[in-house]
Amino acid sequence: MSTNQPVLQIQNLDVRYGSFHAVKQVSFEVQPGEIFGLLGPNGAGKTSTLSAIEGLLTPTSGTINVAGYDSRKQPLHARACLGVQLQSTSFQTELTIAEIIRLYAGIHGVALTRERIDRILDDIKLGDAAGKRFGQLSGGQQQRVSLVIATIHNPTLLLMDEPTTGLDPQSRRQLWERIEAMRDKGHAILLTTHSMEEAESVCDRIAIIDHGQIITIDTPQAIVDNNRDRPEVIRASRRGRITLEDVFIGLTGSSVRS
Amino acid sequence: MSSTVTAHSTTLAPAARPIIDLPGTSTVFSALLRADLTTQWRNRRATILVILIPAVILISWKGLVPRIGAANVLANCITVGLNAIGLMGYTNSIARDRDKGIFQRLRITPAPRWTIMVSRLTVQLMMIAIVTLILFIVGFQSDHITMTAKGYVLAFLASIVGGAIYLSLGQVIVGLIRNAETVNVVTRLVYFIFIMVGMFASIGLLGKKLGDISLWSPYGTVQHILADALNPNTWNTQSSMALLVTIGYTIVFTFLGIRWFRWQSSK
Lengths: 258, 267
Prior knowledge:
The complex is a heterodimer.
Chain A: E1 8-17, E2 20-30, E3 35-39, H1 46-54, E4 61-66, E5 69-70, H2 75-80, E6 82-85, H3 97-107, H4 114-123, H5 139-150, E7 157-161, H6 169-184, E8 188-192, H7 196-202, E9 205-210, E10 213-218, H8 220-227, H9 231-236, H10 244-252
Parallel strand pairs in A: 3-8, 3-9, 6-7, 7-8
Antiparallel strand pairs in A: 1-2, 1-4, 4-5, 9-10
Chain B: H1 25-42, H2 44-60, H3 65-68, H4 70-100, H5 102-107, H6 113-143, H7 149-176, H8 180-202, H9 207-215, H10 218-230, H11 237-260
Helix pairs in contact in B: 1-6, 2-4, 2-6, 4-6, 4-7, 4-8, 4-10, 6-7, 7-10, 7-11, 8-9, 8-10, 10-11
């Protein structure tokens, strides 16, 4: 696969729920080996955009290409190129960790022996958890298992919806190291997060979305530099220096969204 | 609001396209089926209840065998079991897994969506076969009910046809109602009404008018085809009508159930 071609292309994406226009003419692309952050306040359209990419909802208009596969014309191929880590855990409570891994590997056509599953679990320091249920794991352990399942088929593009929510600092740091390691191997990662510090330190590029529209796309530093003189950003600044969070609040407003 | 909108709407260069070998349908299906069978096995307490209730009725109705006939007694009990599988087992598992987001997780994989449901239905068909066989054995052991080999085979097939009606009715309920708790309450209510009205009507305790209504209800038609399948010599035009009505109910419920079904419980 060529490394200079985008692995995700979204063009003029529109999503409506009845009369509510959740996503308006959103276009962006994600390159191989790139961590791309989609940031926005609650209800801005992040999850709707991710859901459209995942194929969980049908866009009103626009196109989504995953690794060159049109998500409407070849949805199975597009989904086969995706690894997804959802915001909330959603695995069968009756199955053990090993059984869940085997299930998702099987769905992706990846044959795994018991020894291979044990090695995978050893790699994420859960060697003794093969027989446990997902609900018996801590939040950090659940995230590690979710990431293993999301990447079991070596996807071209990994989607992560607020992956560090609820994690302690150690688990968060470990997760970012794993995500960066994947980026270094050439995987593209599209993630949403509410943590501006994380986005600033980890993401190669960021898109800020609000009211269904993309306000800006650039590197974190360029977004800060391009907006540092705006009065609303200066007003939002609280530390004497302009941060990504100040720019974010300046661009999207300081009122709390439900 | 910023004016630095940089989102582009121009035509982009085509994305790189790796050659993807999609997993075979049989590979996907066997992975799903293995997981669904394991889930069913781990829920064996509920499975035992599904078997236990009609088995207890069958044992306690031993005295009714001479009065309403062995085929009718056995058919009633199998119908109760089929009701429980379709309305309580299948429907509640779908509602619960939808509520937990398990379907959402499966839908973002390259598994064709029909395989997710067919795998679930296959497990329920296995349950129907197991419950029917166990009730044949309990009927023989406890009530000394013996049928011809042809009768057992035909009743076995009739139980598959009859089971489909309750699976499809469950699909309608889970299509109409999003909340898993409400689905649980409604299926219990429907189950209770079906078996109480159906059983009492079939032994003549509810009078002619209710009896006639019950005869053509989803309970009555299934009970009718099962009874006449167990005793093939009694199969007549009315049995064929009951079979057609059963298939008709199933087609209508399946159509509505698929049409109304939503994979997510919210939005």
